[in-house]
Design brief:
Elements: H1 3-10, E1 17-20, E2 31-45, E3 48-62, H2 68-79, E4 83-84, E5 88-92, E6 97-107
Parallel strand pairs: 1-2
Antiparallel strand pairs: 2-3, 3-6, 4-6, 5-6
Length: 116
């Protein structure tokens, strides 16, 4: 699965814009980030990598703390058939936002659209 497919699917959530890793310019009022945090597992055979799995996180920063965000994000992750953790929730006093986060696992290699 391509990382672009994940971003495109999450960007279907009305009122939220998701990017990969970080916003280069000022983020909108409510926004999201998909972060590739590293490799979880690799399997080698005959001196070559045959399987790889990556840990990723979805971060959502919103001005309201509505529980409806759980359903909205998880509907998209379910549609992508990704295995994910229950969401973590915290209030960030410095930016006055509720931060939701999910962790999911992605079988590799991680591809961008157009990769072979």
């Amino acid at each position: 699965m391509s990382i672009d497919t994940i971003l495109d699917t999450l960007n279907e959530i009305e009122g939220i814009a998701f990017v990969l890793d970080a916003w280069k310019d000022k983020a909108p009022d409510d926004y999201g980030v998909v972060e590739l945090t590293g490799e979880v597992r690799t399997q080698w055979a005959d001196n070559r990598m045959v399987e790889q799995e990556f840990r990723c996180r979805v971060h959502l920063y919103v001005t309201d703390g509505e529980m409806e965000w759980i359903r909205k994000v998880q509907e998209k992750l379910d549609r992508l058939e990704l295995y994910y953790t229950m969401p973590a929730r915290e209030y960030l006093f410095g930016i006055h936002k509720v931060h939701w986060s999910w962790e999911f696992w992605l079988d590799g290699p991680v591809e961008a659209d157009g990769d072979g």
